[in-house]
Amino acid sequence: MPGRDDEGRAGFLSRRxxxxxxxxxxxxxxxxxxxxxxxxxxxxxxxxxxxxxxxPNDDFYLVAVDPSFxxxxxxxxxxxxxxxxxxxxxxxREFSYESLTGKSSTDFLYTFECIGNxxxxxxxxxxxxxxxxxxxxxxxxGLLTSSVKSVMFYGLDDFYSxxxxxxxxxxxxxxxxxxNKEPLPAAHGFPVRTILPDLYGMKQPRWLKRIVLQxxxxxxxxxxxxxWAGEVPVQPTSRIDPLDSIPAGKPHxxxxxxxxxxxxIQRVEVSLDGGAHWVDCELEQGGKPNEWATWKYRxxxxxxxxxxxxxxxxxxxxxxxxxQRTDTFPAGATGYDFEDVRVTPS
Length: 346
Hints:
- The chain contains six helices and 21 strands.
- The chain is elongated.
- The chain has a five-stranded mixed beta sheet.
- It starts with 5 loop residues before the first helix and ends with a strand.
- The chain has two domains: 6-225, Alpha-Beta Complex (Sulfite Oxidase, Chain A, domain 2), CATH 3.90.420.10; 237-344, Immunoglobulin-like, CATH 2.60.40.
- By secondary structure, it is mainly beta.
């Protein structure tokens, strides 16, 4: 069994992934792309001994074209400085922050993951959101016609991404205005951000300023222009919370998370012997569509020595996570997370 992929855990891209991106950049003539990639990571949280089901706002990962971007206004002066513009073939309308927050909204859980999250990485978080159902909002504008095939979202930070109309009108699509029962933090999209089902964060703009209903079916985004995949579903992933050393002969809880986008989580298994045998874990919380699951395995009597623990998940369709390791670029990482554990005499 090879050692832990420290290089992959350490940053936004693994070395191999970075080299692939660089080659795409040269081919496309996008000579500044790699600089943009390196600067995109604003906050990469440390792994916790036990991952909480809901990620606190201050611990939520942050990846953006400019991680330092914050709106020039806040809740106190937003009325004079911001409206959300919606444009379509039939015309244009503008909505104030007050009008948006006054609309019927929904509380829900949703897990965001960065497409650059390596196997076992921390560029993933689960929060409680409050938002306006996208379908109802767009229908209410009166601008949604049968000719609309895609929707482009623009952010105040000049980020952009377009999505198929089918996904935008999905029941899991929202315009979010709250995160963990607070107005959206300035770092995470205030005043409004998109939440769209089964997509990586790189397709979901924050700090919204404009929505354009388009008659063309092709879609794109800032990162797609730089070689990353487009409207691809998130890869099933699972992670073990860190284990350095544990005492032999005493029960110990092994914990972690699993996520598979809209498919949800049906099962999590761990191996205590490098993948030779697998045992079921207890699903503690979550696992519904678009939210991660926290899991636990009670290791009753670990024996002295070293052990390699691995984890895998089965999604709600019955598909088992693949063991094949791939880089994050261009469509998200795959493979099993593992922990090399030292079991010491008690």
